[in-house]
Amino acid sequence: MQTGRRKANWMPMRYGECVLAAFAISHHRAYDFDANQWRNSMAHGLKVGLALAVALILAGGAVAAEPEHEHGGGAKPAARQGESHPGPSGYQRVTEPKGWNARPSTPDRAAYQHNFQAARSYKIGPYHRPVGWTARRWGYGQILPRAYWASQYTLADYWLFALEVPPAGYEWVRVGADALLVNTATGEVLQVEYGVFG
User: Fold this and answer.
1) DSSP of 117-167, one letter per residue?
2) How far apart are CA 63 and CA 56, in angstroms?
3) Paired strand residues for 173
4) CA dist., res. 9 & res. 36, Å (int)
5) CA–CA distance, 65 with 61 (Å, rounded to integer)
6) CB of 169 closer than 8 Å to CB of 183
7) 3-state SS of the chain: helix, strand, coil percent to 5?
8) What is the pLDDT of the chain when averaged over all its residues?
9) CATH number of the structural domain 109-194
10) Residues 74-121: pLDDT tens digits?
11) Between β-strands 189-194 and 114-117, what pairing exists: parallel, antiparallel or unpaired?
12) What pTM value is reported for the model?
């Protein structure tokens, strides 16, 4: 005697088949469940999905390979290679002035010992004072700690900031907004230009 249910087939089933069988049993309905037909329809769906994915990839590649159009209808240059540049025109490049390294062997202390206000201010970037030190306004005759005249604070191109040629054994250093002429052996400040850097 047949009841409305199929006889259980104990062959191994895939997950999807198990889900469909469980659905059929839970709803107490008789479904004509054909695993081969289900597998064939899944394989067909997979083939169609793959074909669509390949078509989309190829279409996307064709769109990406298409040249971009600029607004205004102008054509883009074919290659982006560097052109030769003859250099600036209308002005000379900044070079070291004559005598920039002809340093006096002994400083005339009376001529140098001044605290000047700079006639012009230059913007060259932020200043980061040595770690552990506080801001202070220095004057000639004071001793500047070694941390302040380390190489990163030295103004080797002092002429760009309208500073005097330093005597032998002295260097211009930046301390905040000011330029200080410092003895590189002792740290003594020989001259100060306040407000050189804005």
Assistant:
1) EPSS-B------PPTT-------TTSBPPGGGGSGGGB-TTGGGGTPPPPP
2) 11
3) 154, 180
4) 13
5) 6
6) yes
7) 30, 15, 55
8) 77
9) 3.10.450.160
10) 565 555 666 666 665 665 666 777 777 788 888 888 888 899 999 999
11) parallel
12) 0.52
- Can you read off the two tokens belonging to residue 35? 């695993």
* Alpha carbons 115 and 113: distance in angstroms, whole number: 7
In this structure, which amino acid lies at residue 33? Answer: F
Distance CA 61, CA 66 (A): 9
Comparing C-alpha atoms, which of 42, 56, 44, 49 is closest to residue 13? 42
161 near 196, Cβ under 8 Å?
yes
Half-sphere exposure of 95 (CA within 13 A, CB side): 5
Nearest to 147 by CA among 170, 131, 125: 131
Query: What residue has token string 């089933």?
Result: 13
